[in-house]
Amino acid sequence: MHNFNFHRPLTMDEAINWLGTSPEGILLAGGQTLIPTMKQRLAGPSDLIDLGGIAELKGIREDGGAVVIGAMTTHAEVAANATVAAKIPALASLAGGIGDPQVRNCGTIGGSIANNDPAADYPAGVVGLGATVITSTRQIAADDFFTGMFETALEQGEVIKAVSFPVPDKAAYVKFANRASRYAIVGVMVSQGAAGTRVAVTGAGSCVFRATDMESALSGDFSAAALDGKLVSTDDLNADIHASAEYRAHLVTVMAQRAVSAAG
User: Fold this and answer.
1) Minimal CA–CA distance to 30: which of 139, 104, 128?
2) What is the bridge-based pairing of β-strands 139-141 and 47-50?
3) Bridge partner residues of 141 (DSSP)
């Protein structure tokens, strides 16, 4: 690693102050991507600002018709939480399928969506459920938050505080996982409720995206059969040693149909 200054603020104001006064400071959430990157000397922040001591960034609560999850809540906590399991079991299932026990007990929802790995699970959950990302300065709709590969709408000095998930009438998340990493080669979150009918896809492209043709089909007939023959374009899909663009396009339909069956 390169040398860096370490800070562990206890309040949001302290964290934002350190972030604003550090020339090349980086926030540390779960560290599941950042720490390996620093070990490989691919990242060399001047300051590391650990959010783990800020109590207001942790926890899960109901708020009207939504489940609000603090940014520093771990995947394991989401997976095991009774409120999440009762209100949005698809989200509990998604969190329980991330990585391995070490990753689930260290990684956080805020860190995952801020990193926006194209094969991560949470972006599909956030977009597929029509969630709202609550930051230190504003609220960002899911459709506006993820802007590209490892890119989000977050501005300099802006910190994720929580994510608010509206409770759907029905939802499910299904993924075709890499056997080694458990990252999604293709993962699909399907939901229907106050946020409408939504189909969000991760792993297939450079960034999570909505399959709008599938959403239209499911709006009139929420069944796996409604997606027969519905294929996403291969033009912007990933192609690598794990799967071709054509195979990923096929998997999107298969995973979406399985998710619809599981939700319905």
Assistant:
1) 104
2) unpaired
3) 132
* CA dist., res. 125 & res. 138, Å (int): 20
Q: In what order do the strands lie in the sheet with 5-7?
A: 5-7, 47-50, 25-28
Report the candidate in 133, 124, 18 with the shortest Cα–Cα distance to residue 71: 133
pLDDT at 158: 94
Q: What pLDDT sits at residue 104?
A: 96
Quick one: the chain helix, strand, coil %, rounded to 5? 35, 25, 35
Instruction: Give the C-alpha separation, 84 to 67, whole Å.
Output: 7
Contact criterion met (CB below 8 Å) for 71 and 162:
yes
Among 173, 176, 181, 204, residue whose Cα is nearest residue 78: 173
pTM above 0.90, yes or no: yes
Helices (H), 64-107: 75-80, 82-87, 89-96, 101-106
Q: For 180, which DSSP code?
A: T
CA atoms within 13 A on the CB side of 239: 8
Structural tokens at position 206: 């450079």
Point out the residues of the chain with pLDDT beneath 70: none
Architecture of domain 170-263: 2-Layer Sandwich (3.30)
The full set of domain ranges for the chain reads 1-53, 170-263
1-53 is a CATH 3.30.43.10 domain: yes
228/109 Cα distance (integer angstroms): 33
The bridge status of strand 47-50 relative to strand 25-28 is parallel
